[in-house]
Design brief:
By secondary structure, this protein is of the alpha+beta class. The protein has helices spanning 18-26, 41-51, 59-75, 88-101, 121-126, 158-165, 180-190, 197-210, 260-267, 336-353, 380-384, 400-404, 413-416, and strands at 4-10, 31-34, 78-81, 108-113, 148-153, 170-172, 237-241, 246-250, 277-278, 283-285, 290-295, 298-302, 305-307, 312-332, 360-366, 388-397, 421-422, 431-442, 449-454. It folds into two domains: 4-115 and 154-310, no CATH class; 321-434, Alpha-Beta Plaits. The chain is 29% helix and 26% strand. The longest helix is centred in the C-terminal third of the chain and has 18 residues, at 336-353. It is globular, with a radius of gyration of 25 Å.
């Protein structure tokens, strides 16, 4: 029976490389896929590229690739990643240098271009496409058009599979969906046809269970995080897929946990409608799925069904949305919370005298309600007995000058406000805010190109 083993090597830009390196050496892999992109990551990369044309990709991957390129070459383990971000060619060049330095003759690097439609937007709008904001239908795209930083389409497996069919050993993409990085190699290895929605759905959910790296193997585990062994050397999940089954496991000799509970948490992650989990490749129905532990660190996933893929694709548009300042001031017992609230009142009175024009102001108390916000418990007893609390004030403004009004008012409160204040981290900086405009685009408006080069 044909089978494919694929590992999830990264969960986000900034993740640890340790598990990826370990699974490449010990996981008996056919492929490893690494996800680096989140909704606003591309906007950050776009800003980097504007400052330096050689940047704009996930530079962390270059270090990882240098560590595993020889294993990929010698053991014929394919690597797929969306680390190309906003500068796919820049990432390709760095990986090509590594291959040449390591003398990996014949190694083939595939890459996909065409997901960036920023320059095409005015013409598409002129053709009648409205690009309605999915979060706020009252907003109009023309109002942000001059401020757009990036516009990238979430696409599926097709151009990735095309690279694999041309025998690419490494495939670099931009905003491919996380799960498509896993589906494409499964289709390649098993010879799956794109018309079989049930098989596509199983491949998508294999990717979904792996795309967040350690979150699928005991990291960030709400059910029982204390039960996860050796988290200091956490191994990331691996999927074994055949025509008949989908199993989740991990490499030997590493920490972490693969169980029914870890898989269930990741299975439902970001799935708003279990009957209709929409991806570019297929609409997945997991409403009747079964997750069953069948051995140590071995879980079977079954009864996943697929439906027709959507007519439109998701388009994430990043745009300049003003400026922000985030400031912190800590207070110690006794009366830490009372002192922090009084300091916030002082600051707001000063901002009123400065005629601060803010689009948004947030005042939170780290240690009390900075994470749980309005649902946090704020009992009198708790507030009176807190050992310490950090006042956090954040403002968002249209101009840099307005945002800066807050900056010089924080440090003086060490001597000019309630007792026990401690200022740390230096003066806050005014930073640009990138807003997210989620919308949809017709598939026909996208032109993706697959390329392969040989070392």
């Amino acid at each position: 029976m044909k089978k494919v083993r694929i590992g999830g090597g990264q969960g986000f830009w900034g993740d640890s490389n340790d598990a990826a390196i370990h699974m490449m050496k010990n996981g008996s892999l056919d492929y490893m896929a690494c996800d680096y992109l989140a909704e606003l990551t591309l906007s950050i990369m776009a800003r980097q590229k504007l400052k330096n044309p050689r940047r704009g990709y996930a530079s962390d991957f270059v270090g990882l690739f240098e560590s595993v390129a020889s294993d990929s070459y010698k053991n014929h383990i394919g690597i797929l990643t969306n680390a190309g971000g906003m500068n796919i060619l820049g990432a390709v060049d760095e990986c090509r240098k590594i291959c040449r330095d390591k003398e990996l003759k014949g190694y083939r690097i595939g890459y996909v271009t065409g997901d960036d439609v920023k320059d095409a937007l005015p013409g598409l709008i002129g053709e009648g496409m409205e690009f309605e904001n999915l979060d706020n239908k009252e907003l109009k795209i023309k109002d942000i058009l001059p401020d757009i930083v990036n516009a990238n389409v979430y696409y599926g497996h097709e151009p990735i599979l095309e690279c694999l069919n041309e025998n690419a050993d490494l495939v670099l993409t931009g905003r491919a969906t996380d799960s498509a990085l896993f589906l494409a190699p499964v289709m390649k290895k098993l010879g799956w046809d794109a018309s079989d929605d049930d098989k596509l759905a199983r491949g998508i959910m294999a990717g979904h269970l792996l795309e967040c790296g350690g979150q699928g193997s005991g990291g960030n585990f709400q059910y029982d995080w204390r039960s996860v062994p050796d988290m200091d050397r956490l191994g990331f999940p691996i999927a074994e897929v055949t025509d008949d089954y989908l199993h989740i496991t991990k490499a030997p000799d590493c920490g972490g946990l693969i169980s029914e509970q870890t898989c269930k948490e990741q299975f439902l992650y970001e799935v708003h409608d279990p009957q209709n989990y929409i991806t570019p490749d297929v609409t997945v129905d997991i409403s009747k799925a079964r997750i069953t532990g069948i051995g140590k660190d071995l879980v079977d996933i079954s009864q996943i069904r697929g439906k027709k893929k959507p007519d439109k694709l998701k388009l994430s548009i990043g745009y300049h949305a003003g400026y922000k300042v985030v400031t912190y001031l800590s207070f110690a017992w006794p009366d830490a919370y009372e002192k922090a609230r009084y300091a916030a009142d002082i600051i707001m009175k000063k901002m009123k005298r400065k005629c601060l024009k803010a689009e948004e102001i947030r005042i939170d108390y780290v240690g009390l309600n900075a994470l749980h916000l309005d649902v946090a418990e704020i009992s009198k007893e708790l507030c009176e007995n807190m050992n310490e609390v950090i006042l956090r004030i954040a403002v968002r403004t249209v101009s840099k000058e307005e945002a800066y009004k807050l900056v010089p008012e924080i440090a003086p409160l060490q001597l000019n406000g309630p007792p026990g204040a401690s200022f740390f981290g230096g003066r806050s900086r005014v930073e640009e805010v990138i807003g997210l405009w989620p919308t949809l685009i017709d598939r026909e408006a996208l032109s993706l190109q697959a390329h392969v080069i040989e070392i």
